[in-house]
Design goal:
By secondary structure, the protein is mainly alpha-helical. The protein has 16 helices and six strands.
Length: 382
């Protein structure tokens, strides 16, 4: 015989509904937006070889892998609740230092790697100390860092310095072909897709950063500090050290980005790196990283970069050949995502769902038709 408890048990257990977090919502929107834009581009520009595998890899992995590095660095510091606008200047400084090392001092190309990493770490350590331990505003500190880097570029050399070192150029020109991804040209030859070393390095660093933020104590501390500083302190997290390490990691990624940029553009110039920090911030925010801190994923930033690169590739195909048009369209997406983040933040903190966005002096009705919020009763209950 069945017990009394078994007889009363429901035949179908209740299904527990899980609410999507702000991180999940923003990531879903970013990925969906990229897929939508790419499919539309494929349909509209199918006669421009846009659907070729080689074009895909060149657009998203081979041309600007440094942008992914800078965006990932911004993602790390923005999750912690900070900001770093010196990454563009660091990129230009690394390129100039490498160019001078190879062309005028005859140094082996191997030493350009520690030089690039050292420059990035130096900026990260100094700026991270001033921001986390001296508690100076991050915008002011990193703005000074950006001006210092730009000034140092002109001090080193005020003109463009091309690189012709054989070893470095062999790294720059190397290609890893993917034999199963190809298209046939009209003359019968194969157009095989490939990855350049800079693109491979960028993808490896992306994978490492995903693991670092998801499965390590540092990653959990980073989200806790950015989400709520006081709660992180009560949890025993060293807030200052965490924010310091976030800036050090951002500096390291900026150094790697500078090295990858030089691989793709083997030269140094005072004009390199200008505006790159804005592109990196835009890619990070479009990828779902919130300016308020505590929310963001490297994987989302990756898709934010893809959207940015797709815009830069597609906009000229519409006949908008002015260099400013991709920036204008990217800024429009950036504005939309900032507004979306604000909406999600307000809705998440207040009861009443999207109705919480309404000003207090606007009344609205509940599902039953009865008035549940009235400005006059709220401010004058008598």
């Amino acid at each position: 015989m069945k017990s009394e408890n078994e007889e009363k048990a429901p035949l179908h257990p209740a299904i527990k509904r899980t609410r999507l977090s702000s991180t999940d919502i923003l990531l879903l929107i970013t990925i969906s937006l990229f897929i939508f834009l790419y499919i539309v581009s494929l349909v509209m520009f199918q006669n421009n070889n846009f659907g070729k595998f080689s074009v895909f890899f060149n657009t998203f992995f081979n041309e600007k892998p440094y942008l992914l590095m800078l965006s990932l660095g911004l993602t790390v510091v923005m999750i912690s609740g900070s900001i770093d606008i010196s990454v563009g200047g660091v990129t230009g400084l690394v390129a100039m230092v490498i160019a001078v090392m190879l062309t005028e001092n005859g140094i082996n190309a191997i030493w350009t790697i520690p030089a690039a990493l050292g420059i990035g770490l130096a900026f990260g350590i100094v700026q991270g100390f001033l921001i986390s331990y001296m508690e100076i505003q991050p915008f002011i500190v990193t703005l000074s860092g950006m001006f210092f880097a730009r000034g140092m570029i002109s001090v080193i050399r005020a003109v463009s310095v091309p690189i012709s070192d054989p070893l470095f150029m062999s790294w720059s020109n190397a290609k890893l072909y993917i034999p199963f991804l190809y298209n046939t040209r009209r003359n019968g030859t194969l157009d095989i897709a490939y990855l350049v070393p800079a693109g491979i390095i960028a993808l490896v660093v992306l994978a490492i950063l995903i693991i670092l933020l998801k499965y390590t104590k540092f990653g959990r501390s980073l989200y806790a500090v950015g989400g709520n500083r006081q709660s992180a302190l009560l949890m025993g997290i060293d807030v200052k050290k965490t924010k310091f390490m976030a800036h050090v990691l951002c500096g390291l990624l900026a150094g790697i980005g500078g090295f990858l940029f030089t691989l793709g553009m083997p030269s140094g110039s005072p004009d390199y790196g200008r505006g790159y920090e804005i592109q990196a911030i835009a890619s990070s925010i479009i990828g779902g990283t919130m300016l308020s801190g505590g929310v963001g994923l490297p994987f989302g930033t990756f898709f934010g970069v893809l959207i940015n690169l797709l815009i830069q590739r597609v906009v000229p195909m519409f006949g908008l050949t002015e260099a400013s048009w991709p920036t204008i369209i990217t800024s429009a997406f950036l504005f939309a995502f900032i507004v979306m983040q604000s909406v999600l933040s307000i809705v998440g903190k207040k009861d009443g769902g999207f109705r919480a966005l309404l000003p207090q002096w606007i009344g609205f009705k509940s599902k039953t038709g009865k008035e549940t919020l009235d400005a006059k009763r709220r401010y004058d209950p008598d």
